[in-house]
Amino acid sequence: MAEAKNDIIVSLRDIFVEFEGEVILNHINLDIRDKEFLTILGPSGCGKTTTLRIIGGFLEPKEGTVNFEGKKINGLPPYKRNVNTVFQKYSLFPHLNVFENIAFGMRIKKLPKNEIKKRVKEMLSIVDLKGYEKRSVSKLSGGQQQRVAIARALVCDPKVLLLDEPLGALDLKLRKNMQWELKQIQQKTDTAFVYVTHDQEEALTMSDTVVVMNNGVIEQIGTPADVYNEPVNAFVADFIGEANIINGTMIDDCRVRILGEELECVDKGFGQNTPVDIVIRPEDIEVVKPEEAKLKGEVTEVVFKGVHYEMTVMCKGCEWIIHSTKCEPVGTTIGMKVIPFNIQIMNKMFLAEKNTFYADVISSDKENNTITVKVEDCEFEIENRYFEEGTRLEISLPPSALSIAGDGVGHIDDVYIESVIFKGEHNEIILESDEQKWLMQSYVDEQVATYVPLKFDFTKAEFKIAEGKNET
Amino acid sequence: MKKFSKIYTALIILFMYVPILTLILFSFNDGKTTVWKGFTLRWYADLFKDSQIISSLWNTLLIALLASLFATVLGTMAAIGINNFKGKKKILLQNAGNIEILTPDIVTGVALMLMFTLLGTALHFKMGFITVLLAHITFCTPYVVLNVLPRIRHMDYAVYEAALDLGCNQWQAFRKVVIHELMPGMFSGFLMSFTFSMDDFVITYFTRGSSFQTLSIQIYSMTHQRISPKINALSALMFVAVLILMIIINIKDKNQEKRKV
Predict the structure, then answer these.
(1) How far apart are CA A184 and CA B182, in angstroms?
(2) B52-260, what's its fold?
(3) Partner residue opposite A79 with nearest CB, options B168, B176, B259
(4) Residue A254: which region, alpha, beta or left (left: phi > 0; alpha: psi -120 to 50)?
(5) pTM above the 0.80 mark?
(6) Domain termination residue (choose one: A208, A229, A250)
(7) Is the model's pLDDT at A250 over the cut of 60?
């Protein structure tokens, strides 16, 4: 254990970053160990690049400490940190050739000429660019520029190399090649790599450790196998690999109800009759005869994917994706068998059956039977309801009564879409307004990390007069 | 239609350049009037024998060189500063520079004269070389800003960060990396300043004091007396000099475009 503690090079503690009132990083903690390949994975806008910039010294966190080999390095400028960065667009120096680009850092440190020559040569052979010394960097291909950028950073002998989506600008084939090469370079140089990407496949293939981020929080840290097989929540399950994510109820330890059927699983400790999210990977569903499984469904679509068939199966109104080497024709009823070990139970990201919120009646019109209420600084009318002016109402709405409106017709403006997860028959969307989170059901695919106006359908609402009225 | 447009273009160019071509032609005229009396290089030879004109030429070149050098340094610094501002302040500062360009020379000239006279009485100096130099730096700097600002805007900021990352402090990063990125803009700014400085008459006229002479002033004062064909020769030379500078700027720009492609 003591040794395990010693090999931590960088540790971020309670890092908080805010930019123009928007929270970018919400109190995150992260350890980077010596010689490991750590990938920070997440959708755009999740704060992964910000995390990298904090380690590199290009950005100061508002709160929290950055430790390097046990010493606090907050406020230390980039040039005093033993960390180097490979930038997204390589950012080579266009006025220098390949040799001078790589030699740049050593020239600043005023190393002897012979050593510079020797080390540039070594580095060029590591990144497989022997004989390119004299070339102009602008004449190189994207992959070659990338390797020069890596060589330029690695030649400084950093403890940690930071890579900000370095393969993003390359085409698919080159990217695959570079993934493999990066891993080779990392092993040859024994340097810790912190790799930022939104490509889950990249993360799984290269990393020792995967850090999944979303909305400025770290959702899960683990080995690639961990995050794939044991995702902590629906977001991670959805983001990494393909998955069937459905609502279920944990009846008791090892017993779960899915679509009305009780199945055996191996997870414990969720309590009794708790609503949960369930993930089953498409390749973990075995296609059997209908009578051999509790869950049955009809094949509605088959796509041949080379290695396997991808079948879409409708089971009690829910869409399931199955990967199988055997093909069942469209229209067949099949049984879907899943062994208990492959049913992954997860806590719900936002546990709510209904959206409950408070509204102040600011004016009421008895004749037309309408009231005007104020919710989170937004005022709007509700028809066919009457309450006296000044009443504080508790309104609850089921997730299906929420919708995303066009501009100007929403009840609450600028609500942030935190996550969108397909639950077999509808999207489950978690939204965040200034004061609370909302759960919404929708058949529309909404874009995560955007701001939208939220609209309510008050015909489905329940109204109650809140106790302790007139707080405002 | 095509023919017409060609003729039209030719006419416009002719219209623009006929006066100058006439001037150049008559600088080779072996006679003092506007009657053609044969080819000569006499006026050019005379020109270089005239010590007053030669000293004015040196003054002009010295002012142009110093003013554009200072303007390049100041303008580049200003452009970096402006670029670091955000939103309204940035626009405001940018326009402050542009207004200076749009202000009529006579206004700038009179204003500078007024200021230098006031300062001169307070600090006991007379207008001359220094005041002309300062005036030229003043009106050249905005042109440098105008040329450098787009370079900064299009510069990959990460290049600067990469330099910091590789061990440069801010000043080293600027000197070893950023300045190379801005160089083309600075060079165009420098050449433009040089041309405008050489070109200037109005502002120089108001800020030169009583004895300091530049070429344009010299020509002007020569027209007071008797029109000498030497003026033609001198003007022709100035035109050619400016033309060469313009060609250099254009070639430079073209090469840059090529490199970008």
Answers:
(1) 37
(2) MetI-like fold (1.10.3720)
(3) B168
(4) left
(5) no
(6) A229
(7) yes
